[in-house]
Structure to design on (419 residues):
């Protein structure tokens, strides 16, 4: 039986980074940049004002102060988006707004509050002169051209995960589209004669197909495009037909049919249509976990992840393996879940030498993280997974994690109370 790390290594050895595609920058949030980007221009393109005020020559302002203002003639104004039409000559100033290009001749901007503009506007006449109440140093309140980016300077490197700041940076250099690694298409198939789809009439012998929807939601959360194949019955014809539909995807995910029961036919079909790399992992829940590849009609090798049928097992297994596979396909290199140390409020028992992923609620009390289990840890209890915001880990070589001991917790979600 493989360890979690050995199984993950085999999964990552098979899945590949997908090819790039062009996308609008607003649709690229969370995606991975597939090319280096250099700036085609200077940002800002011209020296510009960091304040609303007056563009001046500092040489004209020796001795300026509140008690001894220097009066300059005002010739024109310039707003953001305009080019200055009037240079600043000796003894003059130009009214300027934040972001506006600095006129030739000026070497500083004096903010309105360091002038007597309010008093001069009190008589409602045009401001033709302005009193300067302070002498700035040269280049005060001026943002130099190219301060943010020089023309030809690297902007972002291939492999960057694009956040809102990076999207804004791309927009600032005029890019409307960008090449990113495309999102993986994930075919999702549930198996089992007992299953019916949500919305259908049920009876006591049938259960609703929750696995496809929880896994489909996880696929979306981690950047993939879920394709729902529905339910395959527990026979070879039905399974083969559904699998055929999934071979156009980048990866096929099935649930159930991978243990040792009489009706677990998924492994048998996989063995005939491709190969199985492994089918059990030393973890709880989710010991029966299959991984391999299927041969597509076009010759491609389509990775297949066979999840257990129990809903918690399916989600925990997808978190440890499916999520990581999707991240690699998208070009991401940091696969780690945020992991914290927490104090256990109750014990975790490990009865069979497997790594235990216990569903837990993590809270912060008096500056310390505490982990409380969500109740019965049976792998069929999906409600216990819904209550959890983390997975508390008991290593395979420990029979017990006692209450009061520190435990590693993989965080599934964060909330305000965590900080």
């Amino acid at each position: 039986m493989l360890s979690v790390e050995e199984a993950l290594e085999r999964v990552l050895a098979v899945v590949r980074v997908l090819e790039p595609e062009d996308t609008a920058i607003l649709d690229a949030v969370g995606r991975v940049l597939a090319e280096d980007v250099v700036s085609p221009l200077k940002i800002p393109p011209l020296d510009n004002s960091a304040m609303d005020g007056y563009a001046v020559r500092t040489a004209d302002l020796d001795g300026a102060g509140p008690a001894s203002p220097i009066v300059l003639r005002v010739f024109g104004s310039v707003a953001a988006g305009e080019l200055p039409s009037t240079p600043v000559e000796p003894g003059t100033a130009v009214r300027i707004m934040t972001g506006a290009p600095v006129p030739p001749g000026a070497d500083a901007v004096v903010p309105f509050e360091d002038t007597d503009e309010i008093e001069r506007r009190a008589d409602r006449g045009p401001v033709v002169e302005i009193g300067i109440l302070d002498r700035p140093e040269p280049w005060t309140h001026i943002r130099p051209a190219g301060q943010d980016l020089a023309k030809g300077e690297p902007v972002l490197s291939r492999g960057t995960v694009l956040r809102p700041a990076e999207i804004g940076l791309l927009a600032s250099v005029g890019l409307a589209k960008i090449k990113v690694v495309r999102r993986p298409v994930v075919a999702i198939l549930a198996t089992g004669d007992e299953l019916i789809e949500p919305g259908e009439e049920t009876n006591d012998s049938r259960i609703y197909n929750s696995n496809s929807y929880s896994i489909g939601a996880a696929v979306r959360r981690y950047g993939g495009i879920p394709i729902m194949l529905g339910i395959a019955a527990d026979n070879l014809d039905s399974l083969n037909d559904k699998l055929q539909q999934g071979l156009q995807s980048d990866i096929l995910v099935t649930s159930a049919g991978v243990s040792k029961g009489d009706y677990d036919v998924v492994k048998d079909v996989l063995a005939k249509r491709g190969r199985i790399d492994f089918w059990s992992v030393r973890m709880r829940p989710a010991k029966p976990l299959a991984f391999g590849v299927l041969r597509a009609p076009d010759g491609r090798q389509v990775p297949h992840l066979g999840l257990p049928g129990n809903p918690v097992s399916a989600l925990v297994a997808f978190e440890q393996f499916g999520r990581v596979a999707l991240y690699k396909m998208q070009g991401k290199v940091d696969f780690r879940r945020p992991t914290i140390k927490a104090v256990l409020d109750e014990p975790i028992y490990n009865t069979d030498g497997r790594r235990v992923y216990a569903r837990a609620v993590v809270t912060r009390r008096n500056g310390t993280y505490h982990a409380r289990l969500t109740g019965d840890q049976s792998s069929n209890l999906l409600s216990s997974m819904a209550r959890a915001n983390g997975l508390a880990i008991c290593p395979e070589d420990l029979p017990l994690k006692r209450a009061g001991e520190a435990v590693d917790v993989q965080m599934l979600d964060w909330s305000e109370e965590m900080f």
In short: Helices lie at 4-14, 117-121, 164-172, 211-221, 236-246, 266-273, 311-329, 382-386. Residues 66 and 133 are 5 Å apart (CA to CA). DSSP finds eight helices and 27 strands in the chain. The two ends are 39 Å apart (CA to CA).
